[in-house]
Amino acid sequence: GEKTLKNISRPVRLYRVGLDSPVLPEVEAKRSISKPSIVVLPFSNMSGDPEQEFFADGLTEDIITELSRHHELFVISRNSSFVYKNRAVNVREVAEKLAVQYLVEGSVRKIGDRVRVTVQLIDTANDAHIWADKYDRKLDDIFAIQDEVTAAIAATLPGRVEAAQRDQLARAKPANMAAYECVLAAKVLHHRSTIADNERAQTLIERAVTLDPDYAHAHAWRACILGQAWVHNWCKDRDAVWNNISAALDRALALDNNDADVHRILAAVNVNNNELTTARYHQERALALNPNYDLVVVQQGELLTWLGRPEEGIEWIRKAMQLNPHHPERFWSHLGKAHFAARQYGEAIEAFMHLSTMDSVQHAFAAACYGWLGDEIAAAAHLGKIRTLDPQFDLDPFIATLHYAQESDVQHVREGLLKAGIANL
Questions:
Q1: Domains of the chain: which residue ranges?
Q2: What band does 173 get if pLDDT is binned at 50, 70 and 90?
């Protein structure tokens, strides 16, 4: 309440601060949208070596920090997590106390001149182990190891959580979905890249924006999904759709200028509009905000390829693959295109062959590779696939979809396809 204090003319409002309140709150924060919640428990030191205790604690803290960069996860704070240090843990009790869906636990063990870090992700609803892995490293620079293992775990975990969420959503009715769940379902449809799935994705993303108008991620993905329709000409009024894309991006940025995914999507949309300078700005922001996010890292490689620096692009794409061994299959497509731009045709073909299925664009790049290699039979096989997948495929409209900054790279694709026999398609 207000009190009159000596030498102060006006009453001053005073507050009581409860320093003796419990460290562990009943529920850390109310969540307005159904984001997946996760706690990283302190990693156990299995070595009996005090030095490894510091390593285990530092690793835990770094993983919490890196996961917190993902705005699509609700990550329990370090203070709440470390209450459980050196305590026997009951998964259900932790889940109830902290209101979390997922729990991460791990251990550190020193073996001679090597250290082994194990980690596992648990669904607290049923104690199911969703994902587990181990990392063996030579014990040269303990801080370098800490950085490397943190990056690998932080890059992999969000994807494993999202996969688990997708499995749950497959059994859910759209009418019962929260904003986050609508976005997640819309992303799944978006990645299928068909006109029917795009239309369904638009319906879901509009519902997400309606449910939570201040959800930056929903607005960013609305732009991305509308952008897919715009790029593939799946819309009647392209100007109106582009205006909606721009409005969605502006809204996302105004709501959260520090979300790496928002800047990642802004970069991608600007690439598709051939605004490479703007794309580069947002890509650099995304990297600064979350340097271990595999989707941001792979997009850096893709952008560098468009900018005429494919050798650097290859390094970034391979880094993304290393960060997340469970990476989306499309990473191989980005790698193939980067190798093609670097005039490394054999490596490009090898990358494309990792794809379980190829679309007409990927077949076109593979055909261009074989065109430059002088393999008419292999080139013809890929051209035949293009004819089946896209009977309306034509060279000039395809070339117009490329975003290379340098004309020589554009002509490199054209000449490769001409050598492959595209004129006879």
A1: 37-156, 329-425
A2: low
